Amino acid sequence: MGDVLSVVTSLIAGSIRVSIPIAFAALGGTLSERSGIINMGLEGTMLMGAFFGVVGAYYTQSAWLGLLVAMMAGALCGLLHAVLTIRFKCEHVLAGVGINVLASGLTVVLLQMIFNAKGKSCEVASFDMITLPVINQIPVLKDILGQVSPMLILLAIAMVGVWFLLYRTVFGLRARVIGENPEAAGSMGINVYRTQYICVILCGILAAMGGAYMSIGDIHMFSRDMVAGRGFIAMAVVIFGGWHPVGAWLGSLLFGLAQSLQYRLQSGSIPPQLVQMLPYIVTLVVLVFARGSKHRAPAAEGRHYYAKGEQ
Amino acid sequence: MTQQKRISLEKLTQNTTFLSAIALILSLLVSGVVMMIAGYSPIEGYSAMFTGAFGSVDNLAQTLGTATPLIFAGLAMAFAARGGMFNIGIEGQIIAGAFPAALVGAYLQGLPWFVHIPLCFLAGMIGGGLWAMLAGFLKNKLRVSEVILTIMLNYVAQYLAEYLANYQFKAEGMLVRTETIQPSAALPALIPYSRLTTGIFVALAFAVFVWWFLSRTTPGYQMRAIAQNPYAAEAGGVNIARMNLLTMFLSGALAGMGGAVEVMGVHGYFIVNMTSGYGFDGVAIAVMGNNTPLGTVISALIFGALRAGSTSMNRMTSIPGEFIQVLQALVILFVSTPGIVRAMLRKRNFKKNDQKKGA
């Protein structure tokens, strides 16, 4: 009995850990899509975050400063996406694809330049687990949440923050109106572009934090193309999370579960290739079942808005 | 600058070929700057690239051979785009076409080449087509963007093929690959020991087919109508769900042909990771070719040269070949954002005007 319990607790603990990067990116994606901008570049932004987190930690010897550098890189990616899609009316998906390809190439080129290596960086300063005071005393719970990465706490703050921003502030209300009908928002005197810029840049910062968790929060180094589709999974999570921050977090946990099951199964007799397929199959299956939900995409998502006087 | 000249410049920026050319030049310039910042010499890099792409008959063959699957990938993306679909799953569809083509090529024996080769093509087209159609089907059912569906299917195709090549269909030896195809299924090389095979003629023939289909057939017309305005098309009696399936099937079939030609011409078997990055190359190529068949072929040739050149740049200089990805990303961004090029040209105009006024 005790055995089963320890398997379950370690599975849950693993799921939470694995869900962190996807959850950060999905929160960002939720914010951006709520304001009407599809961010396909989540994948590349996460990769940049993972890389610049390591670069920052390498030069400053501090994981926290590494995270800050990652966030700045993420803000830049967000700004790039915003300028392309909002200012220059680039097709949202194409801008995202461009950012992804750029990140994939640029990180390898810079890896060569800074670490003189093709595949991996060296090990750098990383986040240590912290012990949570009260929870550490509660029996079963302490095995799950007794010792956590500080980035899990940041994630919790980010989730509450995004929820508060979207549903409890004037800014969030405006962003949601813009996502549904930017023309109406514009005629009400809302600054559509500024709101969208802020949402997309925040999205970049959040996605980069997710990427940074993968490198300096988990394996202490960067390895090329380490994000491996998690940004795309985060986009799917945004959809079946119903474009809501709490939904995004719950959806990410589901993926965490699929992925930590994957790690467990990998030691078994099932061929590893089939096990590696699991998260992607789960995404497709969940999308099939999420079909009945009442949520729908923001009406103006992916569309271009022209302010008065623009052609 | 006179008023007239300015107007003609405005007009020029409406011309998509001109914009693509400017975007390519800009991308080369900007990635040259990136090279410089990274501490390499762009002149050395680009000249190594140029030699690698065009320096000798063998290099030229390498360029054309590399361009062959890229033509298919670009056509697949362009075809879907003309039908109003974003097919980002070309990579998976190439795999879904390459694998069955490799099996048909290896296990059907005793056929003459003029039967065997078309059968392999057919296997590739059906494999890639059905894989893409699955995304189209799910899109119709779920009303979820095909972008996310095709991307997920990319990963599924990749791992599924890896699994099959590791277990059921593994050939003897160290490599994770399928059995070698029969000689009757092989596409002959035009230049011995190069990637350039008769596959390039097949690719060009398919480009002509795409042009004919889009501009001369009823389904082609309906497809374009959906892309322009789905509501109007529906009101005009077009069955959008069915057309989406057809668009995705044919787009996937084109991608699958790319996989089949790569197996039958270059490798002789399916091997894991043989298609790395072709899918996103296809996106860049179609965007740069403005989604037309001719434009796609021309940009695929340019990308073939860049890819072939970057391999030799990687070998001859210390510059990592991944620079090609930076360049490729810039091409996607610049071409799909004509506003940037227009804004730059306009600014230059204003500056010149100001200087005139000052003088």
Describe this structure in words.
The complex is a heterodimer of chains A (311) and B (359). Chain A is mainly alpha-helical. Chain A has a single domain, classed as ABC transporter involved in vitamin B12 uptake, BtuC. In chain A, 72% of the residues lie in helices and 1% in strands. Chain A is built from 12 helices and 2 strands; from the N terminus they run ααααβαβααααααα. Chain A has a two-stranded antiparallel sheet. In chain A, helix 1 crosses helix 6, helix 2 runs parallel beside helix 4 and helix 2 crosses helix 9 (192-219). Chain B has 359 residues and is mainly α. Chain B contains 15 helices and no strands. In chain B, helix 4 crosses helix 12. The interface between A and B is large, with 43 and 45 residues.
Give the CA-CA distance, first to last residue of chain A: 69 Å
The average pLDDT score of chain B comes to 89
Kindly state the percentage of residues in helix of chain A: over 70%
Please give the alpha-carbon distance between the first and last residues of chain B. Answer: 13 Å
What is the N-to-C order of secondary-structure elements of chain A (H for helix, E for strand)? HHHHEHEHHHHHHH
What's a concise summary of this model?
The complex is a heterodimer of chains A (311) and B (359). With 311 residues, chain A is mainly α.
Please tag this protein with its features.
heterodimer; A: 311 residues; mainly alpha; ABC transporter involved in vitamin B12 uptake, BtuC; two-stranded antiparallel sheet; 72% helix; globular; B: 359 residues
How is this fold's topology laid out?
The complex is a heterodimer of chains A (311) and B (359).
Chain A: H1 2-34, H2 42-60, H3 63-87, H4 92-115, E1 130-131, H5 139-145, E2 147-148, H6 150-168, H7 170-180, H8 182-187, H9 192-219, H10 230-240, H11 245-266, H12 272-289
Antiparallel strand pairs in A: 1-2
Helix pairs in contact in A: 1-5, 1-6, 1-9, 1-10, 1-11, 2-3, 2-4, 2-9, 2-10, 3-4, 3-9, 6-7, 7-9, 10-11, 10-12, 11-12
Chain B: H1 3-12, H2 16-37, H3 42-54, H4 57-82, H5 90-107, H6 113-142, H7 146-166, H8 199-216, H9 218-228, H10 230-235, H11 240-267, H12 278-288, H13 293-316, H14 323-335, H15 338-358
Helix pairs in contact in B: 2-3, 2-14, 3-4, 3-13, 4-8, 4-11, 4-12, 4-13, 5-6, 5-7, 5-11, 5-12, 6-7, 6-11, 8-9, 8-13, 9-11, 12-13, 12-14
